[in-house]
Amino acid sequence: MTNESGPFRIQKISPLTRKERERLVRRQEIIRVAKRIFAEKGFDGATLEEIALKAEFAKGTLYGYFKNKEDLYISLLEEELGHLFGMMEGAMKEEENPLEKVKTLINRIFSYLVENREFFQIFTPERTWLLKGECAEMKKRIHPKFEKVVEATAECLEEVMRTGRMRKLDSKIAANALLGMVRSSAMRWMMEGQKGSLEREAEVITGIFLYGIQRCNS
Description:
- The chain is built from 9 helices and no strands.
- The protein has helices spanning 18-45, 48-55, 59-62, 69-94, 98-115, 117-132, 136-163, 171-191, 198-211.
């Protein structure tokens, strides 16, 4: 529907055509296969030839969607970080209590990393590459996406600080520390063959981050 009488026009979003839907499906299939191969072999070890073969497309087809291997790799990370941010936004809206919001966020991030371990395997080691600035395009496209994840976590922590339940800190530094704890714990949990309860892992992280490890004397 379009409102012609007012100062603003409300544009109706047209549904995708069949050709556009097919293109989207092909793109998602390429990314799905690429994610598995990048997780197995890393950026240097993966080739577009293998990705095309496993996705059952001609190599030339991939160039219709991505400029090169680097573009495919970065596009994959952009999409996954977008999913992670969307999940975090949803989790933050579920809880009213700021402290419970942090607990829910920790649980959801932990679960997301474990359930999306191929993304986790790709992103974790390549952060070094990003931070060194060896790939300008990656830094340009991925850094803002990761910053949104950090900022969402920082916003959650700021809410707790305002209640007085957490001492005032630099929220972004605290957010990075929390995300580092979750990432490290998730990696160890997977490397040890997923021993123990996933919920327990998240519970321990929540307890350490929010309450510390020092025993308080009554």
